[in-house]
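queue> holo job accepted (LCYJ2WEX)
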Amino acid sequence: MADPATISPATLLKDELDIVIPTIRNLDFLEMWRPFFQPYHLIIVQDGDPSKAIKVPEGFDYELYNRNDINRILGPKASCISFKDSACRCFGYMVSKKKYIYTIDDDCFVAKDPSGKDINALEQHIKNLLSPSTPFFFNTLYDPYRAGADFVRGYPFSLREGVPTAVSHGLWLNIPDYDAPTQLVKPLERNTRYVDAVMTIPKGTLFPMCGMNLAFDRELIGPAMYFGLMGDGQPIGRYDDMWAGWCTKVICDHLGWGVKTGLPYIWHSKASNPFVNLRKEYKGIYWQEELIPFFQSVTLPKDCTSVKKCYIEIANQVKAKLGKVDDYFNKLADAMVTWIEAWDELNPSGASKSSDLPNGPSK
Ligand SMILES: O=c1ccn([C@@H]2O[C@H](COP(=O)(O)OP(=O)(O)O[C@H]3O[C@@H](CO)[C@H](O)[C@H]3O)[C@@H](O)[C@H]2O)c(=O)[nH]1
Ligand SMILES: [Mn+2]
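queue> job finished
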């Protein structure tokens, strides 16, 4: 494979990556991303009222799915796709037929690095995904595969080949992804700190995965990227990406793949309403004191040799161990199984493009 650092960003994975955008707004933000995104195919997941027309700027190649499409394509299995929550974005991962996914929110813009240069977030995510991860031994000079860096003294040579990278988790300048209580206490706080680093999250360590600037290898870890039951009719919201991140990290640790965090930065422009967020998050804020120990204690049997087998095993353990925390987790465990069934329905061996689906997108 050619060195990712030498391939021009405009052609990097052009035909192997889809950009998934959940939206209830217009998509004018794409104008700022045009130089970086135009060569790529977009999958737009329109949340909320399906009768509302979403205007996509001219010149982008896209498919758009609204709630009517999701219901038509998945039938009863559409129950596992959240409504009125950014969690709906995971439908885009399911209908894509590409090897890689990049997902971004419609209030995230191109940030500038300390030199004032526009950051091509997609290019950095691709570099992160195409270079190995080092989850088994921490390199104190951060990403050893980056130009101008390397493994430091004492780093075992037997581990320097690294492992495949499944996830690239980017960060945010301006509005940081704080939870509602922190937003309420620090309403004016802005993230101005640009940390020029990419690091692998060590094996055995969970992390709070934010979905607003996230890329992953869909062929490796796609089935684990279910964003759960959130929003309308659910007791919790804004834990969609967290749930997916915990399941994903446990599975990556088990299968020996890496998860990276750090560069690239995007500019997050809109602080969602902290009071609305508090209402969505509050159950999650105390449930997570039980959820984190649960995920830390999950052990996957040796015969869980595929992501789907791992995922179903986690769903079984969710039902067995978290069902007593709240009946919501029984429903979530069932929805996790429905998600895998729906994934298999849309991704039978041989289907090449989403247009091969029995009922394709609205557009
Ligand atoms: O009901 C909804 C609300 C929003 N969206 C789309 O989802 C993203 C994120 O929305 P927004 O920027 O308003 O929310 P944030 O609080 O900044 O989102 C971050 O917090 C987490 C919430 O789960 C999430 O990981 C981050 O995205 C936008 O594109 C909205 O248009 C929606 O589809 N449905
Ligand atoms: Mn936002």
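queue> Confidence is low (pLDDT under 50) at residues 350-356.
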